[in-house]
Amino acid sequence: MPEVRVDPLTGLKTIVAAERAGRPGAGLRAEPGPPLDRESDPFAEGHEDRTPPEVFAVRPGDGPADTPGWTVRVVPNLYPALAPEPAEPPPLERDAQPDLFTTAPAYGAHEVIVNAPQSVTSLAALEPDQVAAAMEVWRERMRVHAPGASYTHLIVNERREAGASLPHTHAQLYALGFVPAAVARERERFGAYAVRTMGGNLLADLVQEEVRRRDRIVAIDDEAVAMAPFGSRLPYQLMIVPRQARAHFEDDGPTAAALLHDVLNRLGRRLGAPPPLNLWIRTAPRGADHFCWRIDVMPRLTHLAGLELGTGLHLNIVAPEQAAAELREA
């Protein structure tokens, strides 16, 4: 029977209807993406002149900026969604109906982190130590922007179906001057849980209970736990959580890089190829007294349709327990 599940972290509801997986055309597989042409790849090593000047890079050989020899490279986004705040902001023109039409300048930072010099389309195609090196740079750039931002949001989009405009594996970092509503909601739920339990950490307690039950656990290593969330919105959604609760991903400590590489390859083996996906890091926003960072992995195997877009209610045709069992075997 279909179930309505409430995600403990977000409060969002999902209908889990596994029986719908048997309807015509509902089989879930990922087809290999098109090959990446290195000659047209602006992020490939040797093509540094095709991007804006770098703002940071890891260069084992200590060569000059914007030359080959790097392992991870950071450049401003060529088409930024946020503008740097000027030294003297222009006066804000106020609308005659501010309650109806609210506006403010979109100040902040928007960077691209090229995860590796090779022309590959997925983090899963890199070696584990390369993923670890890329994630250390993610952390470093979040650390740079965190003092001046209300929230730093790091994402990885893989494949055009998941919004990637360039196929070469890369991350994007948004340093926002406000806390998005979805993140603020989670901050409130963490805080309310801490009050209700006299200091408990919502995500740490959730992971402890999931490990006890085992139904939705995919893998565990020395640093982190990977599981299919109880209220998974999409098939094969995954969440990676540090074994020791820490509020900020950008703080020192494990990054869960090895486990991330592991589960991405499990997805590829189960689905026939690395799927289109969105990945993001949820770190503590400004004003969070109680929080724990995590990595969310959202494969894009189904389409958002009228139910999801019109109500915010997701319909998941693969039960998280089934997804976890399949990925444990993959």
From TrEMBL:
Presence of keyword Iron-sulfur: no
What does the record give as the active site? H170
Q: Name one Pfam family in it.
A: GalP_UDP_transf
Q: Which InterPro entries match?
A: ADP-glucose_phosphorylase, GalP_UDPtransf1, GalP_Utransf_N, HIT-like_sf
Which GO MF terms are attached to this record? Answer: UDP-glucose:hexose-1-phosphate uridylyltransferase activity; zinc ion binding
Disordered as annotated region, ranges: 17-68
Keyword annotations for this protein, in alphabetical order, are:
Carbohydrate metabolism, Nucleotidyltransferase, Transferase
Source organism's superkingdom? Bacteria
What biological-process GO terms show up in the record? Answer: galactose metabolic process
Domain Galactose-1-phosphate uridyl transferase N-terminal span(s) in chain numbering:
3-180
| Sequence ranges of Basic and acidic residues compositional bias | 36-52
Gene3D superfamilies associated with the record: HIT-like (3.30.428.10)
| Enzyme Commission number | 2.7.7.12
Can you name this protein?
UDP-glucose--hexose-1-phosphateuridylyltransferase
